[in-house]
Amino acid sequence: MDIPLAKPYTDDREIEAVSAVISSGWISQGPKVMEFEAEVAEYVGARFGIATSSCTSALHISLHLQGVGQGHEVICPSYTCMATANAIRHVGAFPTFVEIDPLTFNLDPDAVGRAISSKTRAIMAVHQIGLAAHMDPIRKIAQEHGLAIVEDGATALGGQYKGSRIGALGAPTCFSFHPRKVITCGEGGMITTDDDAFAEEARILRSHGASVSDLVRHEALGTVVASYPEVGYNYRMTDMQAAMGVEQMKKLPWILQRRHEIAQFYDQKLAELEEVEPPFVPEHSVHSYQSYLIRLVANGKIDRDELLRGMAARGISCRHGIAPLHLEPYYRALYGETHLPVTEEVSRTTIFLPIYPTLTEAELHYIVDSLKDLLAHGD
After folding, report:
1. Which active-site residues does the annotation give?
2. Which among 234, 276, 315, 354 has the fewest CB atoms less than 10 Å away?
């Protein structure tokens, strides 16, 4: 078999939607972007959605509008995508890497509290691979110390925390539509918020700081002239991407259902293996299962990297756990040698298994059987 780690779920409806946009002659940010924004905002339960070119640009804008700037510090996990820390550096601030909870692999609130300094201005709460961070204690810490929160929900569309969907938990939340995410536009991002002023300013910043959008100027037949009261960015989503997004939102309930079915299959089968620990999901959360991450917890016949090679030899693409950012060359050079033992141990002992909606029952059994065989017998 040839089984990739992830595969976007698209069909002729996306092709037709994008084709219609191209035929319309309006392919940049326009009415389809507005439609996609409204659908995402309504789905998560937020008042506003602001589409962007990527989740990274969404995080950048959100940090900037939360008052984070030159020389400030933002607390975040090291166990996350490089984009999380890159966005912090884009505003001139510095990430303060802290430990993760050894069960959820999300921010450890106690570690957040210990890391606050006079330069700390915000907490970046990452909802890692679709599981919500424990927001109640994080919010309490932020309130006590006057800190802003930005939620990195890149992987978490469809996830829930205490009955509310990620994206409507109170802080600006940033999503990604990269092909490996729950739904995709090819690329693209989105900020959700309930704050009128924040939403309006984010829309201005994403489009060079223009006071009105291209679409408004187009519809006014040249009678409206934009002004540029501040320096902005070219962080716009195109209508071609948004047309894909609108179609993907129609598929989202089934995509999430299918991901949960696959996760439940893995959970049941892997419970038989003492060498493997399936993902932990607290009772108060609903996982979106953008990824399925297992942890090797006992001495098997094969180590993590050999296991990856063995699965690849069987045509199954897996990946090692998230690489800690504090060990990446850029941050080693910036901060010197630092250690986060829990983060490093989780990274060394975790593996992503394939998960995407069109995985067949035969493929799932083949994945699990291959994993069992390698753990029991090695190469």
Report:
1. 181
2. 234
Residue 5 within a domain: no
Token pair for 161: 């925390």
Q: Are residues 246 and 260 both part of a single domain?
A: no
Give the predicted TM-score (pTM) of the model. 0.95
Which domain-ending residue is among 208, 232, 250? 250
Does residue 56 sit within a domain?
A: yes
Residue ranges making up the domain that contains 329: 252-377
User: Whole-angstrom Cα distance, residue 235 to residue 201?
Assistant: 13
The amino acid present at 370, given as its one-letter code, is S
The answer on 281 and 233 residing in a single domain is no
In tens digits, the chain (379 residues) has pLDDT values of 899 999 999 999 999 999 999 999 999 999 999 999 999 999 999 999 999 999 999 999 999 999 999 999 999 999 999 999 999 999 999 999 999 999 999 999 999 999 999 999 999 999 999 999 999 999 999 999 999 999 999 999 999 999 999 999 999 999 999 999 999 999 999 999 999 999 999 999 999 877 666 666 556 556 556 666 788 999 999 999 999 999 999 999 999 999 999 999 999 999 989 999 999 999 999 999 999 999 998 777 788 999 999 999 999 999 999 999 999 999 999 999 999 999 999 999 999 999 999 999 999 999 999 999 999 887 6
59-70 core/surface letters (b: 16 or more CB in 10 A; e: else): bbbbbbbbebee
